[in-house]
Prior knowledge:
four-stranded antiparallel sheet; 36% helix; globular; alpha+beta; 9 helices; 357 residues; Glutamine Phosphoribosylpyrophosphate, subunit 1, domain 1
Amino acid sequence: MKKLALAFLCFTAGVLTSAIGAQATNKPWLIEVHGGAGDIARDTTTPEQDKAFRATLAQAIQAAGKVLNSGGTSVQAVESAIRILEDSGLFDSGKGAIYNAAGFNELDAAIMDGKTLRAGSVAAVRTAKHPITLARAVMDQTPHVMLVGPGADQFLSSIHGEQVDPLYYFNEGKWQALVKQLGSEGKPIPLRPAGAPSAPAALVPAGGLASVEKPARHYGTVGVVAMDRHGNLAAGTSTGGSQGKLPGRMGDSPIIGAGTYASNESCAVSATGVGEYFIRLTIARDVCGLVQYEHMPLQQAADTIIHTRLKKLDGVGGLIAITPDSQAVWSFNTPGMYRARLRQGAKMNISIYSDEP
Ligand code: ASP
């Protein structure tokens, strides 16, 4: 009789445990992706550009969805989507990284695991093909959170990560954008990167470099937030930083709590915009703080930070964010932000301009 009772107890406990487990492992997954905010408007975007941006956002979010569908973690999903955006050359990230004032590229990235609060980040790296993968290696393979400058590149080399030549990042359009900006600011123009093809003559303006108009503001950082089937959150951000920045300048993206943050207790955030404001306001952590301590709905928390606190300092930019209870929002105070959302089993939402949902 005793044995029977014990067997019944074990059976009941087993059923309960697996029910709780099944529930936890079968949570519908959720992903959001951004490709930067800025002066992005219909009348300055060609149909081809519009199509290319949407297609790349779709490709990245679908890759992350595939990871989560097959039981992968949110950290894996975030990394896989960001790698695609880094490779695309369309955004200020990875291959598409913009130039600093001295005419070379320094890249920043961060990733955070909301389940464990472990995080990895790199700043001012010069040879990484995939800064997000390097950030993940810092998280997984070192006792540290952040590596910067030559130390980060040395670490990349020591783990035999993918390293590239400076010319990998060369792009005539991005170079000309730098020349335009420095020209309009009356700053010295650095030498063209060694080995780059010579500049097409038509690109030099008739009135000299000082005659160029002020370039449009576009913050093309990329970022991803995801929740996996276990309900665990992760966030990642990867950027070339702000165009014409001083060498050694670090933005908000690699700073945990500023441009990137994830905690299962509150939310996951990836931000984009003028990093200096996002650092001063600890934007990503503040959004999660409002959710965690004030129990604010996520949209209200994000809007409070972007439309009230950031606006008060005249800061520009935006963010994507999700919570463990499947709230998913974005908020930005610029004319556009490249962004996409995908919930398991639902239709994908890809938007660029502010009048899109
Ligand atoms: N936040 C980035 C930085 O300041 C730039 C961006 O979002 O495009 O480095």
